[in-house]
Amino acid sequence: MLGRGAWRRIAVVCCEMCLVLGAGASGVLSATAPAAARGGCVKVAIEFGTQGRPVSEATLAGARRVAAANGMCRPSYGAPTGSASKQIGEVKAAVRAGEKLIVLSADDPILLAPALRAAMRAGVTVLTLEDDVPGARDFFIQDTAYNAIGRAVIGAIVKAEGPRATVAWLATTPDSTLDLAWLSAMMADSAAHYPALRFVSANVLPLATPLTLAEAVLHAYPGLKAILALDDASVAGAAQAVSDLRKVGRVGVFGVADPEPNQRYFADGSLQALFGWDATDEGEFTMCVAALAYQHALHAGRSFTCPARPTGSWAVASTSSRLTGATRDTIIFSKPLEFTPQNYRQYDF
User: Fold this and answer.
1) 124 falls within a domain
2) Half-sphere exposure of residue 280, counting CA atoms within 13 Å on the CB side?
3) What is the CATH number of the domain that holds 175?
4) How far is CA 223 from CA 150, 165, 217, 218, 270, in A?
5) Do 12 and 45 touch, CB atoms closer than 8 A?
6) Range of the domain at 193
7) Is residue 349 part of a domain?
8) Is 24 strand, coil or helix?
9) Model pLDDT for residues 59-116, shown as the tens digit of each residue
10) Number of domains the chain is built from
11) Regarding beta strands 314-315 and 303-305, do their DSSP bridges make them parallel or antiparallel, or are they unpaired?
12) How many whole angstroms separate alpha carbon 147 and alpha carbon 144?
């Protein structure tokens, strides 16, 4: 979550997998646990680019929780990769070892694409998670829809600060494709529903830290009501600046990030709301998608359900959508989840 490039992981699924598939009257596919008679559970290895982070541990816990329900063994925990070149090496090693399915959160989509295409030519099913590698995967699990997170963040800002507030946006990587897509969605929602909301940019000082950028924008706009932070570092910098300059209660901080690293800011009142998705649930969901994808049971334009999740169905996109950000064979995982001073203690990632 903020995920995105911050969460780097590879999951390698191997051995034989057996699924019993049923189609409901509406054409929704559903998976059930495979029979042990066909060789037992499927071996799964999960690898994160950065190990030990709360969000990685939560995703692993979710995957392990439903592994058996999806016919998989308890997932092992691989070594960190930390770079695109190491991820490429892991992909090639997985193909040489005869692995049948790879789930990858790409460190660098451009550099990884050739290795993933080679894996697909070798008969490996490839899924991407969080960060897509267009043209080099079978399916992409997208955390949430662009328009959904745009609507959620703008709604929270307006609820707290009013429909005519001045909002500064802050990002440590202002040229990030995903950050810009989210920001565009937020501004589009604002233009459609709150045209008096005013956006200004805090990204004006070269080589500045998130803290100094936030301090600069607070000084530049005395009437500023909110800072919209688009990544983990920006959230921390904005909240710290609000606290240091004694703006708590006068300037709200809103963003897209994980709750656990930002507990201190929720606790001291400098952070009002974060948005993302449930990392534990995403781990569970990934196991379901991996099982179905390996069995060639996912198809563009079709919906499916997961046996370990009591409610809900998901769709496989058949076309690209600028509104949601989905491309063909994308599966949007969830609606945005809001973390607030009232509920952040419920989440350990």
Assistant:
1) yes
2) 9
3) 3.40.50.2300
4) 23, 9, 10, 8, 17
5) yes
6) 146-276
7) no
8) coil
9) 788 888 887 888 777 776 655 556 778 878 878 887 787 777 787 877 788 998 999 9
10) 2
11) antiparallel
12) 9
